[in-house]
Structure prediction request, 85 residues.
Amino acid sequence: MALSDRDRAILDFERGWWLVPSAKGPAVRERLGLSPTAYYRALQRLLDDPDAVAHDPLVVHRLRRARRLRRQARVLGRTITGNER
Prediction:
């Protein structure tokens, strides 16, 4: 199934959200009309969608890696500092 306009907008937003002058939560509400919770649920669903990989492979692979590291840290009982590879 092809990505919806909203799915593409979520991936596009995630690619450069740090360039937004406001905090991420309010920017998600303003630009996408989603609560932060709905945004993160949709984003996590997109990470497993092959069409999302085709649309923006760098963002999807970066987020998959971050998700994998968070899961590993939970299993091992560690905290992620952002420097792990």
